[in-house]
Amino acid sequence: MAGAPHILDGVTVPLVTPMDADRRPDAALAKPLLATMDAAGIDTLMLLGSNGEGALIPAAAAARFARETADLWRGMRGQRSRLFVTVFGAGTAIGLENARALMAARPDALVVAAPLYFIHTEDELADHFASFAAFGVPVIVYNIPRYTGNPITLSLLGRLAGMPHIVGMKDSGGNDQYLLDALAATRDNSGFAISQGNEKRLGWALLEGARGITPGLANIAPALCVALAAAAREGRVDEVEALQARLTALTAIHSLRPGVAAMKAALHLLGLAPMAPAAPFRAYSPTELEQLRAVLARMQGDVGGHLRSGE
To answer: How far apart are CA 211 and CA 183, in angstroms?
Structure first.
C-alpha cells in the first residue's frame, strides 16, 4: 500500500446492522460491537452494505441507524473515525433518494452499487454512477455482480475512474484475474484505490497492490484483519500467509447456513450483537446455534467478544 494516504487504506469493516426483536435497526444495540472495533484499532466502518443488509432496510430506518451509529462511532474514535454508507436501489432515482436520506449521517464517502434487477448497458451504468456527484462527497463503486447482475467491467471501470468524484472500488466479485486487471488498469491513477472483499484472498490482494480490505469477517475478527493489513503494508509475506490461513479458517462459520444469518448468529454467541436478521432471512435455530458454537470454540483466540456457554 504505497503512495499518499487514501480513504480505502487498511481495513474497512462492513458492519452488520443490529436489530431489535421486531427486526428494526437499532444503533444502541451496536455499542458492544463498536467498542470491539475501537479496541482493535479499526478506524473505518462501512454501514448498510451486504453484511449490513442495506438492500432490505427501508430508507427512513436506514438513515436513522446510519446517523445514530455515526454519532456513536465518532464519539468513540474521535478524529480517527471514518464512516461510509452504502447505497442500493433498483434504479437511479431510488438510489439518489436513498443517498439523500443517508447524507444525514455526514458520511466520508458513499459506497454505491450498480442498479439491481434490470441489466443495463455500460452507458446507462456510467450515467448512474455519474449522478452521485451531486452529493459532494467521494464515491466508492461497489462491484458485487452476483447481487446486482451488473458487473463493473474493465471498460466501465476505466470510465468511472476518470470521474473526479469517484475515488475507488470495493471489489466483491471474487475473480482473481479481474482484480489483477483492475489494479493494472488504475495503477497510474493516484486518486483511485481498490479494496478487496474476498475473505479467502485478502492477503494476496494486498500484496498485489490493493490498498485495503473490506471483509465481513472483520465483524468477528477485527484485530486479525488489522494485523494482516499491517503485515502486508510492511512486506512481511510469511506473516501475511499465516494470518490469511487463520482468517480462511474463520470462514467455516458459513459452512452451516452461509451469509448474514451466520454472521449475526456468530456475533450473538460472542455477545456482540443480537441475532435477528432482516426479513425474510430467518435467524439460526437452536440446533444451528450449537453447531456454530462448536465451530467458534476452535477459534476463540482469533475472534472478538467472549463465547457464551450453552443456552
So the answer is: 10
Please name the amino acid found at residue 143.
N
What is the per-residue DSSP string for 122-146? HHHHHHHHHGGGGG-S-EEEEE-HH
pLDDT, tens only, 28-80: 999 999 999 999 999 999 999 999 999 999 999 999 999 999 999 999 999 99
> Whole-model pTM?
0.96
CA distance readout (Å), 1 to 6, 189, 200, 254: 10, 14, 19, 30
- Kindly report whether the peptide bond that precedes residue 151 is cis, defined as omega within 30 degrees of 0: no
Distances (CA, A) of 195 to 111, 168, 208, 288, 304: 12, 8, 11, 32, 23
Please say whether the dihedral angle defined by the alpha carbons of residues 107, 65, 259 and 265, taken in this order, is positive or negative: positive
**What is the amino acid identity at position 65?**
F
Phi and psi, residue 45, nearest 5°: -115, 145
pLDDT at 191 over 70: yes
| Whole-number Å distance between alpha carbons of 37 and 49 | 17
Q: What's the CA gap between 60 and 52, in Å, rounded?
A: 15
Q: DSSP states of 248-259 as a string?
A: HHHGGGGSSS-S
How many DSSP H helices and E strands does the chain contain? 12, 8
- The Cα–Cα gap between 166 and 146 comes to 22
Rg of the chain's alpha carbons, rounded to an integer? 18
Which three three-digit cell numbers place residue 107? 458520511
DSSP per-residue letters across 67-95: HHHHHHHHHHHGGG-EEEEEE--SSHHHH
Return the amino acid letter for 291.
Answer: Q
